[in-house]
Amino acid sequence: MTRVIHTGDTHVGYQQYHSPVRRQDFLDAFGAVVDDAIDDDVDAVVHAGDLFHDRRPELPGLMGTITVLRRLADAGVPFLAVVGNHESTRGGQWLDLFERLGLATRLGGSPTVVGDTAFYGLDHVPVSRRDDLEYAFEPHDADYAALVAHGLFEPFAHADWDTETVLDESDVDFDAMLLGDNHTPDRAEVAGTWVTYPGSTERASASEREGRGYNLVTFDEAAVGGDDRVEIRRRALDTREFVFVSVDLRSGEGEARVRERIREHDLADAVVLVEITGEGDPVTPAAIEEFADAEGALVARVTDRRTVETEEEIDVSFADPEVAVRERIEGMGLSSTGLDVDDVVRSDSVADSNVRETVKTRVEERLDDPGAFVGTAGDEDGTGEDVETDDEGATDEGETAADDDGGDADADDEDAREGTDDDPGSDDEPTESSTPADGQVSMEDYL
Ligand SMILES: [Mn+2]
């Protein structure tokens, strides 16, 4: 008999809603799973990917993770894992670093035997490269076998990976597929093999309404009495309180009604997500969010789903883009030569074919005047980057509002894609940011 905890999608480092408290929550949830594993003396913790929220986790998340993994290793419980789409990097995987530190085993095509079960791994592979997969796994002589994989597998929602194909083409007969990627916990039997997701360990998006937890998986001839060889039980985790408030405003009702509905809940330290529908008066989301904050909420987000229809013409004025560019350039504190070059480049009176020559002439004219090349003002750090990078710039994979990156828009993008964290960029090659935010390190710094 082999008993393991099956978890995944811990998303350590995710600063959801820009809240440092939420960032800590994700690490704490991972710590809670590991503490349960130690208390329970399971044979292993199996992690099915997305240990980290992004490819360049910051040092606090890395150090916190190492502390948790060290605790597990000291208790003699192996940590077996694969790489998810959120954390996959080009140069090497964080998991390899943890393996080198003796804190983890990266599962792959050869068996890692714990007790009487052989574990194999299949990292996330983009759809475009799946046809090339051979599902070649080396043989084992254990009593049971499990495949740990990261992806959206059939028969669950949003699936793009055919489970039967994997099972048919694999050289090994698996008793179970222990999966990650879909944040909604579920299980099913496919061609005699149990297939299961434990779900995320903290709510990584507003669509993840049900309680969080993990799987306790037992490989045993006598599992659940009958001829089943695998027993999957779900255990709950005590995570951050989320309060979902839906308000359907009737005509004549407005902010007062929304506040009344919010007050029906205990908001203390909770993430409060308010959704407004109906016919009533317009409301100001910011005012309601302030109200919830004052009532003790950790974070409050209001989504008004009503389309505002009006008979009146709306008077919209667009700012002159030339003026906007000029203002921005003034703010950059360019030298007089820089300003002159900019003037030539954008001027209507210099033909495009003459720009190069004109710029050369203007710069040459000023070569005797060093002051003409000294900037006048501008950003303290001279980069201007703070204008365009948001404070969650750590996600370097081009995530948009469609992913659950905690922006204001993320409460209302879920309907078609509930419970998954399949971001639109997940099939692309990972894009390494050329300008990592402060405090970030990459795998290449270590390996
Ligand atoms: Mn995930």
TrEMBL record:
Residues 3-183 form the Calcineurin-like phosphoesterase domain. Residues 351-447 are annotated as: Disordered. Nuclease activity is regulated by Rad50. Its cofactor is Mn(2+). One of its GO terms (molecular function) is DNA end binding. It is an enzyme of class 3 (hydrolase). Residues 354-369 have a biased composition (Basic and acidic residues). The active site is at residue 86. Keywords: DNA damage, DNA repair, Endonuclease, Exonuclease, Hydrolase, Manganese, Metal-binding, Nuclease. Its EC number is 3.1.-.-. Residues 378-431 have a biased composition (Acidic residues). Mn(2+) 1 binds at residues 9, 11, 50, 183. Pfam families: Metallophos. Homodimer. Forms a heterotetramer composed of two Mre11 subunits and two Rad50 subunits. Belongs to the MRE11/RAD32 family. Part of the Rad50/Mre11 complex, which is involved in the early steps of DNA double-strand break (DSB) repair. Mre11 binds to DSB ends and has both double-stranded 3'-5' exonuclease activity and single-stranded endonuclease activity. This is DNA double-strand break repair protein Mre11. It comes from Halorubrum glutamatedens. The lineage of its organism: Archaea, Methanobacteriati, Methanobacteriota, Stenosarchaea group, Halobacteria. The gene is mre11.
